[in-house]
Specification:
- The protein is of the alpha+beta class and 134 residues long.
- It is built from four helices and four strands, in the order H-H-H-H-E-E-E-E.
- The strands form two sheets. The chain has a two-stranded antiparallel ribbon with strand order 1-2. The protein has a two-stranded antiparallel ribbon with strand order 3-4.
- Helix 2 packs antiparallel against helix 3.
């Protein structure tokens, strides 16, 4: 039986990060639908079935290149999303010693020491300079 399944999955995409994420979201939606009940629950079941269909479509798909591109876009989005929160966490932990500004021209985040009065801040990315009070 195991070799039959292995032979069936040859040339197919299989489980990747995006399909695992979709299956976790579907699992959470199942729990919410079981707790809530009523008309909201019946509406959630439509999304649950659609999510499961999409997940199995991705797993059994033979178009490996398209599924790989979709997975790479998901991983890129996830990386950008998590890096925003990682940066916010770092800024929060350094808030007593440093003040943070955005460059007005390139929108880069700049860090300057607190308590220096009015200083000229020069962006390392684009070279723009502006005066801010720390």
């Amino acid at each position: 039986m195991r070799t039959r399944l292995a032979n069936f999955m040859i040339g197919r995409n299989g489980s990747d990060n995006l399909s695992r994420f979709v299956s976790v979201v579907v699992g959470i939606m199942i729990l919410v639908a079981a707790i809530v009940g009523g008309s909201v629950s019946s509406m959630l079941w439509i999304f649950i079935v659609a999510g499961l269909a999409y997940c199995y479509f991705r797993i059994f798909s033979r178009d490996y290149n398209k599924r790989r591109e979709e997975n790479m876009r998901y991983l890129q989005f996830k990386s950008e999303f998590l890096s925003y929160f990682h940066g916010a966490k770092e800024r929060f932990s350094q808030r007593r010693d440093y003040k943070f500004f955005r460059c007005p021209s390139c929108r880069a985040m700049l860090r300057v020491p607190r308590g220096k009065g009015k200083i000229k801040v020069v962006c390392r990315k684009c070279g723009a300079s502006f005066v801010k009070k720390t």
